[in-house]
Amino acid sequence: MVHDIEGISPGFYKNTHLIQAGNFRQKIGYLCINQAIARDCAATLFFLSNYLSYQTAVQLAGFVEKSVYLFSNYWQIDSSGIGAFYDDETQDFLETNKDVLYAMAIGK
């Protein structure tokens, strides 16, 4: 979910494709249990999986999340993991049948 990145339209992206343009700050903030960081960041990433093994899926999500932390730290961009969100509502909003494992706020 892109909120405020120079040169990129705000909206809901899947991979690099814009699915739906718009300002979703309030909705994302709500879905992440009213955490201001999810609402106020430049972008929110959601980690999804239709796993065969929950443990493996969570470990891989953690690996990717830590990689994003390293890159954002290198570029001096704030980032924070978000482990609390409304599971079913987030899944419905993202229009996916995959499980939402984790969320991450990037930038200010």
Structural account:
With 108 residues, this protein is of the alpha+beta class. The protein is 37% helix and 26% strand. The protein contains four helices and five strands; from the N terminus they run ββααβαβαβ. The chain has a three-stranded antiparallel beta sheet with strand order 3-5-4, with helices on both faces. A two-stranded antiparallel ribbon has the order 1-2.
Gist of the model:
The protein has helices at 25-31, 36-40, 54-74, 87-93; strands spanning 11-14, 17-21, 43-49, 79-82, 99-106. The protein is α+β, with helices and mostly antiparallel strands.
How far apart are the termini?
Answer: 14 Å
Task: Give the count of helical stretches.
Answer: 4
| Counted beta strands | 5
Principal-axes geometry comes out as globular
> What is the N-to-C order of secondary-structure elements (H for helix, E for strand)?
EEHHEHEHE
Portion of residues in beta strands equals 25-35%
Mean model confidence by pLDDT: 94
Unreliable sequence segments: none
Class by alpha and beta content: alpha+beta
* Helix percentage range: 25-40%
- Report the C-alpha radius of gyration, rounded: 13 Å
Describe the main β-sheet briefly: 3 strands, antiparallel
- State the strand order across the main sheet: 3-5-4
